[in-house]
Design a protein that fits this description.
The chain has helices at residues 13-27, 70-76, 79-88, 103-112, 136-144, 191-198, 231-239, 251-259, 272-283, 295-302, 315-324, 332-339, and strands at 2-8, 31-37, 54-55, 63-64, 67-68, 96-100, 116-120, 150-154, 163-164, 178-185, 205-209, 224-227, 241-247, 262-266, 288-289, 309-311, 343-345. The protein is of the alpha/beta class. The longest helix is centred in the first third of the chain and has 15 residues, at 13-27. The N and C termini lie far apart (42 Å).
Length: 346
């Protein structure tokens, strides 16, 4: 089977999901062409699992001080180039075309009349899930950014819809967690604001991963280590950390829940997806939420014991089997069977 798989690369969450399914598809005998967009090609790192992947500039979101900046987003996206990339992408000869919220693939398929499968967290948003921060612009972006004929949503609960659990690498860390070691991943926040936030908590050890991390070494405190983005180094620190402080994306909170790390999220204001994720975490009692960088909220969270653990099954394997069959019907019994393999440990 020949598969074309487009992945949005603005953040690392979509790529993390792709990393989980890539070896499953290969083991199943699929021939996959990967396309990544959303950031400069040189900014993709540790991409060996995807082989000789394709790249286009695509579309991305611009942020400022932890908020989505719609004006900068409009000005900095090259729509002429995007349209050229859409028109030039030839999807002839593929048995499956998949988009993980990747717009070049989605719109090229729509123009060519090719059926697309949308796999990802954003495809749950057309269903009855907790929604916060909804506005006209945010709603339209989620609906039209990367449309698909078949939407397979991913979330922390099924909400009685065609939604699967998170698609993550499901291995478990073999070392005990250090409750004082905290991973911090707030890439959309100003690095100096993060350092100011963490400075008073000298009784904890913070490992701050940030796109500007390598340029911040000279300002580090003894209890704060600032690091540039590195998947390998991040995984090593994540394995024995006691908690995760991050934006309200989807993949990293999912990994934290699976590993039993306590979780504090700060949603990216102005982005409906992150505001809704924060609401869902709070509603499901899976993590703590702060709307702004708030030292009082951090102090309260650090004093808490671990949050609930939510162990997820091999969703990537289940999705691979579904993709490799002839019929792409989303049967309720299949969705239910995957959720039956989840385990919540309070």
């Amino acid at each position: 089977m020949k598969i074309f798989y487009g992945v949005q690369g603005t953040g690392n969450g979509h790529i993390t999901r792709a990393r989980a399914i890539a070896p499953k598809l290969k083991a199943a005998g699929a021939e996959v062409t990967w396309l990544f967009t959303g950031r400069p090609r040189q900014d993709f790192f540790e991409m060996e699992v995807f082989g000789d992947f394709q790249w286009r500039s695509g579309l991305t979101f611009q942020t400022r001080h932890g908020h989505v900046d719609y004006l900068r987003t409009a000005l900095r996206n090259n729509l002429v180039r995007f349209l050229k990339d859409v028109r030039s992408l030839d999807l002839t000869g593929y048995d499956r075309v998949i988009t993980d919220f990747e717009p070049v693939t989605a719109w090229a398929a729509r123009l060519q009349g090719v059926k697309t499968v949308g796999i990802g967290h954003q495809y749950a948003f057309g269903l009855d899930i907790p929604i916060a921060g909804a506005d006209f612009m945010g709603t339209q972006l989620l609906k039209y950014f990367a449309p698909a004929n078949i939407g397979l949503g991913i979330h922390w609960h099924h909400f009685n819809g065609p939604i699967l659990p998170p698609m993550i690498e499901t291995f478990l860390a073999d070392q005990p967690p250090n409750p004082r070691k905290i991973i911090v991943y707030l890439p959309f926040e100003d690095i100096e604001a993060i350092l100011t936030l963490l400075k008073p908590f000298s009784h904890h050890e913070f490992h701050v991963y940030h796109p500007g991390g390598e340029r911040t070494v000279s300002t580090q405190k003894r209890h704060i280590q600032v690091k540039g983005l590195s998947r390998e180094r991040f995984q090593l620190d994540f394995a024995d950390c006691g908690g995760v402080l991050c934006n309200a994306g989807f993949e990293l909170p999912s990994e934290a829940l699976h590993q039993g790390k306590k979780l504090l999220v700060k949603p990216l204001q102005g982005q409906m997806e992150q505001c809704s994720n924060a609401l869902a975490l709070d509603t499901l009692k899976l993590g703590d939420v702060m709307d702004e960088l708030d030292a009082a909220a951090v102090a309260q969270w650090l004093a808490k014991p671990n949050s609930s653990t939510l162990r997820f099954p091999d969703v990537a394997g289940a999705v691979t089997e579904w993709l490799m069959q002839g019929d792409l019907t989303l049967e309720h019994s299949w969705i239910e069977s995957v959720w039956d393999r989840c385990e919540r440990i309070s």
